[in-house]
Amino acid sequence: MLRALTRALRLPRPWRPLQTRSCASDGAAGDPEIQVRVLAGPDQGITEILMNRPSARNALGNVLVSELLEALARLREDQQVRVLLFRSGVKGVFCAGADLKEREQMSEAEVGIFVQRLRGLMNEIAAFPAPTIAAMDGFALGGGLELALACDLRVAAASSAVMGLIETTRGLLPGAGVALAKELIFTGRRLSGAQAQALGLVNHTVPQNEEGNAAYHRARALAQEILPQAPIAVRLGKVAIDRGMDVDIASGMAIEGICYAQNIPTQDRLEGMAAFREKRPPRFVGK
After folding, report:
1. Is 210 a catalytic residue?
2. What is the pTM of this model?
3. Labelling 162: which of 31, 184, 190, 209 has CA 20 to 30 A away?
């Protein structure tokens, strides 16, 4: 997730569920560790992935990783998902990183397989077609911060969010460099939400509230700003930015041109032009 970290360093009402789905990996015992929530009303188009593993502070174990991969595979095919928001159901923590207690019981071969799956999870989040937002109301350490960095946007509580790539303090290596990125990894330093915003790691910080979910509410407000925009144009804009960052300027411009060409025949582009001409808000349908 080094690429996600360096990229982040370079750049800047209660919910009403329409549908709630729980995801469990094949053969998993106990309650599901995530819930997928499809919001309704003015929030229609926002889907939430709620991580809820209080016994392990949302640590990334086999079951949680499997459930996240399962949910992402289903949601990426759903054109109704305009924004995907990651949040925690455990107060005071976003994700505590990899489940080291579980990993300690694995053989070397099993560790290698799990690390590959974890890396695959981060790649799936980064490649998700719709915009993704991480709502960080508490600790986001190691793999938890990597998960947030894999998202397009991040919102953190100024005081209660604590983040760091602490793998080196456990004798491990981040799966995630320039000078600042290397410093964070080499030192395993922990940052508050306010410090993270000053460094450009998060887009917004907010004062924490009594319920401990201020970052979630700000993230949801940010998602609501995305909802009125043309969904196809937003998705193509994400492709142009993500793919353009890894190539030279000329190639980046070519990628942008390809994305623009795909947007030209859409109904939404014509609707946008008609709305401008008629001086009314556009009504985008994602076609």
Report:
1. no
2. 0.84
3. 31
